[in-house]
Automatic annotation (TrEMBL):
This is Late sexual development protein. It comes from Penicillium cataractarum. Keywords: Signal. It holds the Pfam family Ferritin_2. It comes from the Eukaryota. Residues 1-19 form the signal peptide.
Amino acid sequence: MRILDLAVALSSLAAFVVAAPTSPGKTQLPDGMPSPSPDQLKLIEQNAHGTLPNGPPPPVISSDGIVNLQLIAFNELFEVAFFNELITNITNKVEGYDIDDEEDHVKALDALKAILAQEELHALRANDALEHFKVNPIQPCQYKFPVDDFESAIALAATFTDVVLGTLQDVVERFALGRDVDLAREIASVIGQEGEQQGWFRVLQGKIPSELPFLTTSDLNFAFTAIQGFVVPGSCPNINEIPLRTFEGLEILTPAGPLSQNITIQFEDPNNEAEHLLWLTYINQQNLPIVEPIRVVSRNGKEVKAEALFPFDDNEMNGLTIAAVTKTDGPFSDASSVAKWTLAGPGLIIVN
């Protein structure tokens, strides 16, 4: 499965193939997560090739800082479930996950076991900080993943890691604005770790390790919405405690290539917003958001199909592009200003 196909799958977040279904009530997390014993934590740290930071969280935190920690924990628990399932499928040589060359099989497992343990520590650190600040830690959900072989799993991992790298930029900025200086430094170290694993995912797909000179930015609300596409509805014990928006779904029906072209999109419109002018707004790299008018093609109940230009040639829109149907044409100064006016999204487009 090509990365563009995975981007479409992730943007639509529908019709998933779950490689290893989990019975209701059974956790998909390993190592006693999200509350490992001291012995389990020691093993996680050994597998991660490092430890949890041994300094305490700062004595105070901003309100936006709390939301940052909740979103990080919500995302990291999903990633732990994903990588645990991937490792299980490779280890058991499930059809589609059987790596023929034994040396490659061992190398892939070694790398993924380290990534899994590192994501476990990220989740623990965020939830430990929430508890420190007298806020309920985020509990894991039940998850579903749109992959059925090793190639598509790595492509999907690269796609959501792209989104994570953009979202953590927003996290650092919110920490900085809230004067949560120590936490901003810690997250900067996590961005480096995520970038290292993303380079490996890209090499596995035959791509150059580094995607862009300035990675595409994002907004917490887009990530919060995207992650929920991997969640079994109604399975998250305390998702309602995370004060972020969930947008209507947006599907990119036309995989965009490295050229300017009209693309077809589909989105949910429960309040008949499409009766007024709408725009498709693109977030790419560190550039100002690009806005293109939407032409409605058809409507079936709440579902709208429409077209808009993907203006690649004039903007060198390589790497990850986050698309959103917006209720205004801006002008938008950044990803957060786009999120404030978003009806449907995020739609994910990856070129290169």
